[in-house]
Design goal:
It contains 14 helices and twelve strands. It is of the alpha+beta class. It folds into three domains: 53 residues; 160 residues, GAF domain (Beta-Lactamase), CATH 3.30.450.40; 143 residues, 2-Layer Sandwich (Heat Shock Protein 90), CATH 3.30.565.10. The strands form three sheets. The chain has a five-stranded antiparallel β-sheet, sandwiched between helices. Strands 7-9-10-12-11 form a five-stranded mixed β-sheet.
């Protein structure tokens, strides 16, 4: 366009024409009102009312609002503009409809509305590709009548091989060979005007059926080009949504597998504990004190197995208790009493120290570390548990004189699942222990030397002893 030349948008031209038509309508009405003036005062008012209501009724009957708008757009595109569509305005509206859906409007509904608005179609129906290779309706609806039947695999393959916009009026008049793969309910419904394939890359993700617009017309090359491009854009949105859904499902499976891996590790620890109890029973079965400890260990193992089953069930995802002020010594005493039947445990440290933690999570974390220490230690070498104060933190230590670990293993593999120096180990205990401690606001430190043993220190926030009520 030359500099300084006047350019009017389609919207402005439509508004100017609407204003001109309104002014012409008012002018004709005024002329008719003036023509009835000689009839006299009484008859003039009656004639004027009849003229106004008659002209308004005629306008509404001849030019319904929706049909008028479609008719004007069609005629203006044919006679005033080079192209049928204002591509900039159409694309802005299309992307806004796809991306700005409300909380109650699903993506499928936005897709149908975005494609229907392009051709002024009163309705649109989305068919999505299923895992069986069929195209089925995304949601139940009244239009069209045969949408519930979907489209077969042969039709889906045909559209995927040749992803062009289908002019259904032309197909209805085509020879039988050209339309043999088109579903009969599509060809038999004259309200279905066009079909738009939704292709992402080289994969068909869906298919859109468009209803006949208010002003009937044939599809032309601009319709084909714009609907084809819009279909590919819609296909990318649909593929992204399907990918997000698949990712969410994969995350749910990952979370289940993660919980299952932890539980398998805990079951292995219980099996090791019960195995040691069974071996010691052969030598100490006549000792009443050992029998009492064995019964306690078996009862505790049954309780822990029931807890593991509860954690594995879908209902076992309740949130843990928040940290509270308590004595870590009580947790260490419970662990020592449980584990002494399978290995010597030495307990030391302050009794009066309080910290901020969740006893259940702390017991589970220390239990993992103690079990690892027992498996790494010689049978007659005890595992040491101790408690001390370190500034504003409370230090709970698990010490063993076992095989130890290399600095490289600690740095790169210790806290990564499924890496273990033990034969048949899962490599999950230290990882879960650190996660449990971190969830309570603490941290886990480790020191180790090969052939000398390992020292794990759990550091928890120090807390003052609660005042009795």
């Amino acid at each position: 366009m030359r500099p300084g030349a006047l350019h009017l948008s389609r919207t402005m031209i439509l508004r100017v024409l609407a204003i001109a038509a309104s002014l012409a309508y008012l002018a004709v009405t005024l002329v008719l009102l003036d023509a009835v003036e000689p009839l006299g005062l009484v008859y003039a008012w009656l004639a004027r009312a009849m003229v106004v209501f008659g002209a308004s009724f005629a306008a509404m009957m001849i030019l319904p609002p929706g049909r008028t708008r479609s008719w004007l757009k069609l005629r203006l595109a044919q006679h005033l503009f080079r192209h049928r569509y204002d591509y900039r305005a159409e694309w802005l509206r299309f992307t806004r409809t796809l991306g700005d859906g409300g909380a109650d409007e699903a993506l499928e509904e936005r897709i149908e509305r975005a494609l229907a608005d392009i051709t002024d179609a009163p309705q649109a129906r989305l068919l999505v590709m299923t895992s069986s290779g069929r195209l089925d309706a995304a949601e139940p609806a009244a239009w069209p009548d045969g949408a519930a039947a979907g489209c077969g695999i042969d039709f889906a393959r045909m559209v995927e091989r040749d992803p062009r916009v289908l002019d259904l009026d032309a197909l209805r008049a085509a020879p039988e060979e050209e339309r043999r793969l088109i579903p009969a309910w599509v060809l038999g419904d004259p309200s279905i005007w066009a079909g738009v394939p939704l292709v992402h890359g080289d994969r068909l993700t869906g298919f859109i059926l468009l209803a006949r617009p208010p002003v009937d017309r044939r599809l032309d090359w601009e319709d084909h080009d714009l609907l084809s491009v819009a279909g590919r854009q819609v296909a990318s949105h649909l593929a992204e949504a399907q990918g997000q859904e698949a990712l969410a499902e994969a995350r749910r499976f990952h979370e289940f597998n993660r919980r299952f891996a932890f539980i398998v590790h805990d079951i292995k620890n219980l099996a090791s504990q019960l195995g040691l109890v069974a071996r010691n029973a052969e030598r100490h079965a006549d000792n009443p004190a050992f029998r009492a400890d064995m019964v306690t260990t078996l009862r505790d193992s049954v309780q822990r197995l029931n807890d593991l089953l509860a954690r594995l069930s879908p209902q076992g995802t309740q949130r843990p208790d928040p940290p509270r002020v308590a004595r870590p010594r009580a947790v260490l005493e419970a662990i020592a009493a449980r584990c002494r039947t399978q290995h010597p445990i030495a307990l030391s440290g302050r009794l009066d120290v309080h910290a901020l933690f969740d006893p259940a999570r702390l017991e589970l974390a220390i239990g993992h570390l103690v079990q690892n220490a027992i498996e790494a230690s010689p049978p007659d070498e005890p595992v040491w548990l101790s408690i001390d104060r370190r500034g504003f933190e409370v230090e709970v230590t698990v010490l063993d004189r076992g095989r130890g670990m290399s600095a490289d293993f600690i740095r790169h593999s210790l806290f990564k699942p499924f890496n273990s120096t033990k034969l048949g180990g899962f490599g999950i205990g230290a990882f879960e222990a650190r996660s449990l401690v971190a969830s309570m606001g603490g941290r886990l430190e480790v020191e180790s030397r090969e052939g000398e043993g390992s020292r794990f220190a759990i550091l928890l926030p120090f807390a003052e002893e609660p005042v009795a009520a």
